[in-house]
Amino acid sequence: MAIPPGEILAEELEARSMTQRQLAEELGRPAQVINEIIKGKKAITPATALQLEDALGPSAEFWMGLQTTYGLTLARAARA
User: Cα(77)–Cα(74) distance, rounded to whole angstroms?
Assistant: First the structure.
C-alpha cells in the first residue's frame, strides 16, 4: 500500500497545531504548493525536503525517503 508523503506531512502539521498556510509562510512558498503536496498532487522535491527539515525537524532524507518509497510503490503497482 502506497502512503503519499503528504499524509505524513498533514499528520506532522496536525500534531503541531500548524496550518498549511502557516507552514507555507515559514517556507516562503505559496500555500497551494503545500496543499498539493498534502493531496498527493505534487511531489516533495529535494529543495522542499530541506525546507521541511528546517521547519519541522525530521531530516531531508526522511522526507525524500517517503517520496522515493511512494514513487517506487506506485511504479511497481503499475508494472504488475
Answer: 5
Tell me, yes or no, if the pTM score tops 0.85.
yes
Residue with cell 505559496: 30
> Can you tell me whether residue 58 is helix, strand or coil?
coil
Select the CATH number that applies to the domain covering 5-66 from these four: 3.10.450.50, 3.80.30.20, 1.10.10.10, 1.10.260.40: 1.10.260.40
* Neighbour tally for 59: CB within 10 Å: 13
| Extended beta strands in 1-80, E state | none
pLDDT digits (tens, 9 = 90+) for 15-46: 999 999 999 999 999 999 999 999 999 999 99
Amino acid at site 62: F
CA–CA distance, 16 with 56 (Å, rounded to integer)? 9
